[in-house]
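Notes from hallway chat w/ T.B., transcribed later so I don't forget. T.B. wanted the structure written out for a chain they're using in a teaching module, and asked if we could keep both sequence and structure tokens in one place. Agreed to drop them here.
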Amino acid sequence: MIKRFLDYTEIQTKITSLFTFVLTLGFMIFNDYEIKFFPTLVFFLSMFIFDLCTTAINNYIDSKTNGQDIGFTRKTGRNLIFAMFFISAALGLYLVYISDIIVLFMGMFCFAVGVLYTYGPIPISRQPYGEIISGILYGYFIPFIMIHVSQPHSMIEIQYAQGFLNLNMDIMSLLQFVLVFMVPTLLTSSIMLANNTCDIEKDVLVKRYTLPYYLGQAVSVKLMYALYLLVFASVVLSSVLGLVPLIAILTLLVMPKVWANVALFKKDLVKHVSFKFIIKNFIMIMAVYSVLVLIGGIL
């Protein structure tokens, strides 16, 4: 039962959000942000369970068209989705209760995207902007909420007084945040881009017209190279500007292996052969970057 559930929710893919969580911890420690344990724990559980839920929804929906075995009867599969959704939503609402309304708005957006990604009249996963949405969600929204529940006024603050709603933003802090977390954002997008690049022909059969469908495989691979260049540029700038520990610049040491993996991906654009190289790149870059930022923050 447990193994089937883990397969249904593709537990092995959840490393993406875990690395972002570790990176955010390191960033907060290095910049002397207060870390409130309980709200952070509630956020992590809500985020992780909802991540499992969205994957289950994706597999449940796809099984209708490709005959995929989800490991359970469709009724059980559907009930598991509802259970995960409501548990995650309950935790999210509790987090709003102990934090503020900004978390509510951010959480509502994340829940909406998670559900609409594979469900609804126009699923996001079938559109050419899926890479952008998934990247922003995992790379920016997760760290922002995590920071906000511990340090509510660090970047954005909403105040209500005398019938007026005031939104205050620390532009410099927001720009620094955008630069540092460009790394997980672009790397998450690269996974989606690689997946869709390999699946163009299969996707068309189920009326899924993703970004690579419009760009073509050759241009999509060039875009992949561009994403990695921006990732390493972000690492350099963040380290040199002191937004993360200088030791994080050692992430550049993985560049040769990253380019080698992209070359292997480009060589044979068949999913079961090539997709693993982009996953390896994500794990390699995020593992090194996150750990270095965390170590540098602690030291």
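Follow-up for T.B.: Residues 188 and 261 are 16 Å apart (CA to CA). Might be a good example for the class.
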